[in-house]
Amino acid sequence: MNILVLNCGSSSVKYQLIEADSQKWLAKGSVERIGMSGATLKNVRHDGDEITIAGEIVDHIVAIEYILAVLLSRNHGVINDKSDIHAIGHRVVHGGETFSGSVLITDEVIKSIRDNFEIAPLHNPHNLRGINACQVNLPGTPQVGVFDTAFHQKMPRKAFLYGLPYSLYSQYKIRRYGFHGASHRYVSERAAAIMQRDYHSLKIITCHLGNGCSMAAINEGISIDTTMGFTPLEGLLMGTRSGDIDASIVLYIMGKEGISLAEANTLLNKHSGLQGISGVSSDMREVIQEMKNGDKKSTYAFDVFCYRVKKYIGAYAAAMGGLDCVVFTGGIGENSADVRAACCEGMSYFGITIDDEANRSNEKEKLITTRDSRTKVFVIPTNEELVIALDTKAIVEGKTVA
Ligand code: ADP
Fold first, then answer.
1. How confident is the model at residue 106 (pLDDT cuts 50, 70, 90)?
2. Is 148 tagged catalytic?
3. Residue % of the chain over a pLDDT of 90
4. Are residues 128 and 9 in the same domain?
5. Does 253 lie in the same domain as 143?
6. Ligand 1 atom closest to Cα of residue 212
């Protein structure tokens, strides 16, 4: 079954056509600068053929038209007919409290995605635009929504409630939701498979460290806590996001500098994190480079980043009453031995002893703890697109996906 996996943003659409039975991708790429000058589609075929097409891509409907045209093209394509796309799987950022699993997209589901616009104004409208564009270009093809928040929906109330008046939760649904659900699910399931243990018997901490960063405590298959909250701003330090701060700081700065709500939002989401502390870059590679060159602020940024991961490992082991394994994933988690080493440094007392050679080996998927380390630490490349494709296949085949 061929599944078209789509991740629709405000001005971009990322896609992969995945053959779900073999779990192989046939083609992947992205459309960038939708609605702007200089819009392009970049497509890579499984055999390495690459093409970039420039065009007037005015909206998401045209973007999907372009994607279909390249997938069907004689020279660069991989399918002969639109009907060779058997289903479409969409990454939808916010499922609110409505969705605790992936679902077939119906009129009712579309209404619920729209109802969640208010708590996810930056993402859900564009996700829905992608769904509408597929209804226009591929009418009748089943579409499935896979929500970033769904995996965390079983979190207990004590983990998702903030210490605010309860009425703010009842009235505005202000609570912790958590994100990166497909990634946390994929790498934790994969860790259980590598350990040859029952997923539902394990205590796992997953660290998704990319541009956005979050961790999850997965106890016997259920995400019981996660670092991102009402929005993806909370928790770990990120490329440009502050992560946890004392909320009073926002009010204090607004008073001191007379900045508006919108400016405060930009400060926390775009000018903070690695970028904010180092003043060098939001890119961990550059921060590490400058740290190694002796730049102090880059060292502070690196230290804050890793310290926070370590602190949450401790917190989540306490929350679960034990720990079988930790998984690192995402661009930083998969690629930076320095970050992994710093996050797990001095934790032998805790059952974690990193094997330096294994940590620095070139293998992509690997165990990086010593043989006698009570808690295992893995590096597992994430594959959110595959999760979306497999959920989509399962839903189209009438199965329930939790
Ligand atoms: P996104 O969250 O946008 O999907 P990624 O998961 O690709 O992003 O992660 C991007 C981050 O990964 C960037 O901060 C980048 O610096 C970091 N990264 C990629 N390769 C390395 C590396 N070799 N060492 C350290 N950081 C890396």
1. very high
2. yes
3. 96
4. yes
5. no
6. 2
Q: Which two tokens stand for residue 308?
A: 């926070």
CA dihedral 248, 251, 252, 254 (to 10 degrees): 160
Asked if the structure places residue 193 within a domain, the reply is no
pLDDT (tens digit per residue) in 332-348: 999 999 999 999 999 99
Indicate if 255 and 379 belong to the same structural domain.
yes
**Domain coverage including residue 259:** 198-384
Ligand 1 center from residue 126 Cα (angstroms): 24
- Asked if the structure places residue 97 within a domain, the reply is yes
Distance 160 CA to ligand 1 centre (A): 28
Whether the per-residue pLDDT at 55 is higher than 80: the answer is yes
* Shared domain check, 340 and 236: yes
State the sign of the Cα–Cα–Cα–Cα dihedral 110, 111, 114, 118: negative
Strands 376-379 vs 325-329: parallel, antiparallel or unpaired: parallel
Among the options 148, 225, 324, 391, which is catalytic? 148
pLDDT for residue 258: 94
Q: CA 15 to CA 4: how far, in whole Å?
A: 7
Give me ligand 1 centre to Cα 76, in Å.
29
Length of the chain: 402
- The per-residue pLDDT for 120 is 81
Report the residue among 336, 380, 382 best suited for mutation to probe ligand 1: largest number of ligand atoms under 8 A from its CB: 336
CA of 145 to the centre of ligand 1 (A): 26
Indicate whether 133 and 213 sit together in one domain.
Answer: no
- Where does ligand 1 bind, in terms of residues with CB under 6 Å? 210-212, 239, 283-285, 288, 330-332, 335-336
Q: Please state, in angstroms and rounded to a whole number, the distance separating the CA atoms of residues 138 and 304.
A: 47
168-181 residue pLDDT tens = 999 999 999 999 99
d(CA 63, CA 60): 5
User: 129 with 231, same domain?
Assistant: no
Would you place residue 378 in the very low, low, confident or very high pLDDT band (cuts 50, 70, 90)?
very high
Domain ends where: 128, 147, 166?
A: 147
Instruction: Answer yes or no: is 271 within a domain.
Output: yes
Choosing from 284, 329, 383 the residue with most ligand 1 atoms within 8 A of its CB, the one to mutate for a pocket test is 284
Q: How far apart (Å, rounded) are the C-alpha atoms in residues 379 and 74? A: 39
